[in-house]
Amino acid sequence: MFRRPIGRGEEGQCQGHAVRRGVASGRVGDDCVLAAPTRATDLAGLPPAFIECCSAEVFRDEDVAYASGLWAAGSQAELPVWPGGFHGCDQLAPTPGSPRT
After folding, report:
1. Same-domain check for residues 96 and 47
2. Which of 41, 74, 81, 97 lies 20 to 30 Å from 26, alpha-carbon distance?
3. In terms of residue numbers, what domain contains 3?
4. Count of structural domains within the chain
5. Residues contacting 59, CB < 8 A, separation 6+
């Protein structure tokens, strides 16, 4: 799954921006576990994860399922669920020094 070495250029080799470009272009299937880790079936041995979501988040259930899978596999995960928030609500808060503060 995550740790399997994959040769250069093969479907499934994907990290960060390369994942998004590959999925968008159709070169990487949208079932790639690196594009969406919740699709992985083997979560054992992964490093600690910080997963945060809001209670009205569209991805909340997926985030909770991923954290639960990590815990079941013996990995560490921190999962704060912020009450009342929605996807992207943290981007609406003014930053220090901005004209809105």
Report:
1. yes
2. 41
3. 1-39
4. 2
5. 53, 87
Same domain? For 59 and 72 the reply is yes
Q: Are residues 35 and 66 in the same domain?
A: no
d(C-alpha 56, C-alpha 88), whole Å: 11
Strand ranges in 1-101 using DSSP code E only, listed in sequence order: 49-50, 53-54, 77-78, 81-82
pLDDT of residue 4: 37
Do 99 and 77 fall into the same domain? Answer: yes
Mean pLDDT, residues 73-98: 86
DSSP for 48-99?
PEE--EETT-TTHHHHHHHHHHHHHTT--EE--EETT--TTGGGSSPPTTST
Please report the pLDDT score of residue 19 as a whole number: 55
**For the chain, what percent of residues have pLDDT higher than 70?**
60
